[in-house]
Design a protein that fits this description.
Elements: E1 4-8, H1 12-24, E2 30-34, H2 47-52, E3 68-71, E4 76-80, E5 85-88, E6 93-95, E7 98-101, E8 105-107, E9 120-121, H3 126-136, E10 141-145, H4 149-160, E11 164-168, H5 181-193, E12 197-199, E13 204-209, E14 213-218, E15 223-225, E16 228-231, E17 235-237, H6 240-244, E18 253-255, E19 266-268, E20 273-275, H7 283-297, E21 311-316, E22 319-324, E23 334-340, E24 345-352, E25 355-362, H8 368-377, H9 392-397
Parallel strand pairs: 1-2, 1-7, 2-3, 7-19, 9-16, 10-11, 10-16, 11-12, 18-20
Antiparallel strand pairs: 4-5, 5-6, 8-17, 13-14, 14-15, 21-22, 22-25, 23-24, 24-25
Helix pairs in contact: 1-7
Length: 398
């Protein structure tokens, strides 16, 4: 009889781990997957194009994997580590020899007065998209709280759907985790040129309405009419199931370099996992974790996960943003900056000890992957320093 592998979570990390497991050791396990959502696995990072209308929901589905039992809309409610069983909401009880937690995260919901009004939502899954599109069908005004990647993508998507959009950010610069001050100004101007009302240094105090949201009240007393409010202020690892099962948790489920929890039969990957005091919110490290975990489940040797630099991109049609490495320069760093205001192009490279340590690009980002390769490799750029800002072809010529 095959050993039993139960996977809790049907997102991108779980899908990638099972995909790699099928490559390493096909038919090694009898696999059962429990998904909390009613939808088959899909590419969550493409939710923004679905919101804007550039992609259909069906186009972001992930390929079904043969030979795997998948239970949709049936979240696991309890893990019995003594009997090695999981219990689901529908009453299913499934035993396991190995258990993989890929429960992802939940959107942070600001504890504001009126936060439970109809029309107030997050931006995390296909159900959120459906709710936002239902509101947008009638036009009206939307207020998006949060000037990070998701907030900007939500604001532009709703604009493309015909809503008048205000984007609120409590800081003084958009994408402050990905952009330097110069890049943030360029992005701000490009969003404003699209008709998005961007309010910086804006603290939200309350949401108003009877049963439906009608307005957002700011800390300075201003009242912004709103038919839809989207909170895009961060995510929180979903660890309630793991914590109730007695697994060690901090911000996430604590794992070692093999993605194993302190219970040797249980692994955790993706946004719910905490590795060396770090959690992740991007797909690239989640896929790296899935690769390591799959190799161990397949008994293919001892691989280790290490958090490496990752690149982020803004998924807004017509506004390309690429960022990698720390935004704030360290003492002694040299900044190379290129600006083309008429085209809305901006590029900043931070150089430390003859090596690229940070890349910020807006507009023409074609050279982004090449810069990122140099950053990851720690390449000495001394010989091409004077041509570096102009990209790979100029550097090769030099």
């Amino acid at each position: 009889m095959k050993p039993r592998l139960v996977v809790i979570g049907n997102g991108m990390a779980a899908h990638r781990a099972l995909e790699r497991l099928q490559t390493y050791a096909p038919d090694h396990y009898a696999v059962t997957v429990f998904g909390a959502e009613p939808h088959a696995a899909y590419n969550r990072i493409l939710l923004s194009p679905v919101l804007s209308g550039e992609k259909a929901a069906g186009a972001i589905r992930l390929a079904a994997q043969p030979g795997i039992m998948v239970h949709l809309d049936d979240p696991v409610t309890r893990i019995d580590r003594v009997r090695r069983e999981v219990h689901s909401r529908s009453g299913r009880v499934v035993g396991y020899e190995r258990l993989l937690l890929a429960t992802g995260s939940q959107p942070v919901r600001l504890p504001l007065p009126g936060a439970d009004l109809t029309g107030v939502m997050g931006f995390r899954d296909l159900d959120d998209i459906d709710a936002m599109l239902a509101c947008a069908a009638g036009g009206g005004r939307a207020v998006v709280i949060g000037g990070g990647l998701l907030g900007i993508e939500a604001a532009d998507g709703l604009r493309q759907r015909g809503m008048a959009v205000t984007l609120l950010h409590r800081g003084d610069a958009l994408l402050n985790q990905q952009l330097d001050a110069g890049g943030a100004v360029v992005l701000l101007k490009r969003l404003q040129a699209r008709g998005i009302d961007v309010q910086l240094n804006a603290d939200t105090a309350a949401l108003q309405g009877e049963t439906l949201v009608q307005a957002v009240v700011l800390a300075d007393g201003r009242r912004l009419p709103a038919d839809l409010v989207v909170m895009a202020v961060g995510i929180r690892p979903e660890i309630s199931l793991a914590r109730a099962a007695g697994l060690q948790c901090g911000r996430g489920v604590r794992v070692d370099d093999t993605m194993q929890t302190f219970d040797p039969r249980i692994y955790a990957i993706g946004e719910c996992a905490e590795h060396r005091s770090q959690t992740v919110g991007l797909v690239a490290p989640a896929w790296q974790q899935a690769e390591v975990c799959a190799a161990h489940l397949a008994e293919w040797g001892h691989r280790r996960y290490r958090l490496t630099p990752v690149a982020t991109r803004l998924k807004v049609s017509g506004i390309d943003v690429f960022s990698a490495g720390p935004v704030t320069p360290a003492p002694g760093d040299e900044a190379l900056v290129y600006r083309d205001p008429p085209l809305g192009h901006y590029r900043r490279l931070l150089i430390r000890d003859r090596r690229i340590v940070s890349v910020v690009m807006i507009g023409d980002i074609a050279a982004g992957p090449w810069y990122f390769e140099q950053l990851q490799a720690g390449a000495d750029i001394s010989a091409i320093r004077d041509s570096l800002l102009f990209g790979q072809p100029y550097c090769q010529a030099a």
